[in-house]
Design brief:
The complex is a heterotetramer, with 2 copies of chain A and 2 copies of chain B.
Chain A (H helix, E strand, L loop, with lengths): L9 H5 L7 E4 L9 H10 L4 E4 L8 H8 L3 E6 L9 H7 L4 E4 L2 H13 L3 E4 L13 E4 L2 E6 L4 E8 L1 E3 L4 E2 L8 H7 E8 L2 E2 L18 E4 L10
Parallel strand pairs in A: 1-2, 1-8, 2-3, 3-4, 8-11, 9-12, 11-13
Antiparallel strand pairs in A: 5-7, 6-7, 9-10
Helix pairs in contact in A: 2-3, 5-6
Chain B lengths: L4 H11 L5 E4 L18 E4 L3 E7 L17 E9 L2 H9 L5 E4 L3 E3 L4 E2 L15 H7 L2 E5 L11 E2 L12 E6 L2 E4 L6 E5 L5 H8 L4 E2 L4
Parallel strand pairs in B: 1-2, 1-5, 5-8, 6-9, 8-10, 12-13
Antiparallel strand pairs in B: 2-3, 3-4, 6-7, 10-11, 11-12
The chains are: A alpha/beta, B alpha/beta.
Chain lengths: 229, 214, 214, 229
């Protein structure tokens, strides 16, 4: 059978995300954020999620709704503060959400490690700060470094610019951010895209996320007539 | 009658599901690509930075910049992607590759694999990507002849050749049948026509577990 | 007379060499891009995955997919490149970025930096890329006012705010002058017109080392 | 001044590679191998090199000459055996060259770690084999892993398809291999390319090696009239 990872709807794509799941969500600000998938996740009513995202409800209404509805038990992020939203702040100060704060580069590298089968690594980032408290420290080449572990997820929801039916993805400008890392780090990766092309339509030299990392492809709400098939 | 190299390759291809991402080693494993059953599509990975590898290139198809891990000129299929070596081996080590099919000098009943060097002091050691594939692929299939040219069984209680990886082999496809390492010794999953399990026990000196489907 | 924010930014830009790869933090550091001396070119990095960032976008230039780390819409310059977050922070942590210019709450005379959170229990902590930039950039420059609004000196013997990184700051550019952490205490490299080193010693309570070029 | 990393000749580009230097050389087979730079390195007469390459003299005459002339003290590689060449074999069996044999994925990851400021990492690859003898082992998530350190070089000689004057690089097909990793892992990176374009001529979305990693750009011998400026 010809490989075809396109799924008809966002609701179908997220249907098996169950209570207690760990979900990575791509995006840095609005660029690269899979709005339709987040909305479908919200609509599904799923609870008790652990969310891995650079922020915690910033950059989009859909993700804020998920937090506001108390569907998120824990967030792993580098910058939970959102401009123009106090949803996370209120939950956090009320002790209703757990926060694991990670330096942005360490967050990226831990996600990358999960995807690349690296079981742990040492980084100079965070040494001597409260974010490294309790973490193993080792001096390597004269420099104290902190031991960090991979961040694995059950599902990754990523936003890309275009896909082909094999799930090969290309991104657009700063919308790339965490997408390629998260796609490789989750058991199941769902990509929301602005357009879907026939296999062979994306130059193999320019593919950013090879289809091996992608399980399902959904057309974004903004895509409209952009389905090129 | 024992299976030919092509029959072994076809038997391996039969067990790999449609849509699988597969890395094929040099030699007998390469033949698997020629025996993909109708209705199935495998997406081939080559560890020097490509998914969607096609068959060997001939004539005008030869592109000096397009080779596989065996340094043979190959072609590209629709949906292919190129990437660097860190990504390629991250893909392997990160368990994204569904299957790899490789050759072996020896496989132990625990699933240990020896396929990268002999113990000869005059042979230059070279490991390439063998250790990465053995620990990384979700399913490690070995395709090999059951006996060496000098008649020694390549399924062993424990490997005498240097190891490539421990407890990694899931199935071994040979000219005499299909075997699975297990805690109770090798399970015989299938036998080539005319091959008797008792005779194999005798040649190999192994406690083979009869698991041939009735 | 003490320097304006723009004068501080210009002073920083003066010290960064032509062709440098530079990351500019939010606030006063951002102004450095407006004061690149004639004959110099800086290539700007934004940690959300871009080199060759241009100025803020206006009108039709606004592209929803193109923002900087401060989530402001920006433009692209010729020779720009986009990449993912692992590459972007590998670039930072791997010491490829020649300069970063950041703000600070406090800098200690050992070069420790505190710029990511205050100790207020009602403020949500958020670190972003601050710790990565502080340990990674080859030269870490701080641009800030020397005193807080309530008159406390932000150059300190040791930081009372939570640290971003230890022993990382090379130079501090302020409205009153330019300072360098050193084993002997802060070296005063330059003073704004009318600012006296004795007066600064008094306000700050620090042993300032006079290193102003004659 | 406008940034311009183009150097007039390969000889000028490698002139400061001195005795005892550690040099990474890209390539897997002929694709991605910087032939002109290797030749210039040979012509320079430099001795006592440590070479980091996937092979050890395979895939090109220039690199074999370097070994044959005994300019290489040590090689770090995954597969020193060359088809149709016994240069390395003879040196090795005579004890005239040091060999550090590294699994290919670990070689790639160690080079990547050097470029990305990762001070060390744990990988399952090699555990229980003679290539991990003497290395620290740690069980992570129930799996024994081997501790590996970054591989840093003084110089990287890489081959790319095209460059712009800022040193942004794109590669071609399986010629990409180690190039992007090595470019980031060396103090000084020299790229040999098939064509040089004005800055802005390469789509920012398709750049594989951003110019920040590249110090010098040289036009390859095969490029001829391909300089697009």
């Amino acid at each position: 059978m010809a490989v075809d990872k396109v799924v008809p709807s966002a609701a179908a794509a997220v249907a098996d995300i169950g209570a207690g799941a760990t979900v990575m969500i791509s995006g840095f600000g609005p660029p690269g954020q899979p709005d339709l998938l987040i909305e479908a996740l919200y609509e599904s009513g799923v609870t008790d999620l652990t969310v891995i995202n650079n922020n915690a409800g910033a950059g989009g209404e859909a993700i804020s709704e998920l937090f506001a509805a108390k569907r998120v038990r824990k967030v792993v992020c580098s910058f939970p503060k959102a401009i123009g939203s106090t949803v996370f702040d209120d939950l956090y100060l009320a002790g209703e959400i757990e926060l694991e704060l990670v330096p942005q580069g360490t967050l990226a590298e831990r996600i990358r490690a999960a995807g690349a089968g690296v079981a742990g690594f040492y980084t100079p980032t965070g040494y001597g700060t409260e974010l490294a408290e309790g973490k193993e420290v080792r001096v390597l080449d004269g420099r104290p470094c902190v031991f960090e572990r991979p961040l694995i997820a059950d599902f990754a929801l990523v936003r890309a610019h275009r896909a082909d039916t094999h799930g090969n993805l290309v991104y657009r400008k700063t919308g790339r951010n965490f997408g390629p890392l998260m796609a490789a780090a989750a058991e199941v990766t769902i990509a929301e895209v602005g357009g879907i092309a026939e296999v062979g339509a994306i130059d193999p030299e320019t593919v950013v996320t090879p289809g091996i990392y992608v399980d399902r492809v959904v057309l974004g709400a903004d895509a409209g007539a952009e389905d090129e098939r | 009658m024992s299976w030919s190299r092509h029959e072994i390759a076809a038997r391996v291809a039969w067990d790999i599901p449609d849509g699988a991402y597969v890395n094929l080693g040099i030699g007998m494993p390469t033949l698997v690509a020629d025996h993909v059953p109708e209705g199935k599509q495998f997406i081939l990975h080559t560890e020097n930075g490509m998914l969607g590898m096609g068959r060997a290139a001939t004539g005008d198809e030869v592109d000096p910049d397009l080779i596989n891990a065996g340094k043979i000129h190959v072609t590209e299929t629709p949906g292919a992607a190129y990437f660097d070596h860190a990504e390629s081996f991250g893909m392997i080590r990160g368990r994204h590759l569904s299957y790899c099919v490789i050759g072996a000098y020896q496989v132990s009943q625990d699933g240990d694999l020896a396929n990268w060097r002999t113990t000869s002091p005059t042979v230059i050691p070279g490991v390439g990507g063998a250790m990465d594939l053995a620990v990384g692929a979700r399913h490690v299939f070995v395709a090999m002849d059951l006996f060496t040219r000098s008649g020694e069984c390549k399924l062993v209680e424990s490997c005498s050749y240097p190891l490539t990886a421990t407890r990694c082999v899931e199935r071994v496809y040979t000219d005499h049948g299909v075997f699975e390492p297990s805690a109770d010794g090798f399970r015989v999953v299938e036998l080539a026509g005319g091959v008797g399990i008792e005779a194999l026990r005798e040649c190999s000196g192994l406690d083979l577990v009869d698991a041939v489907a009735a």
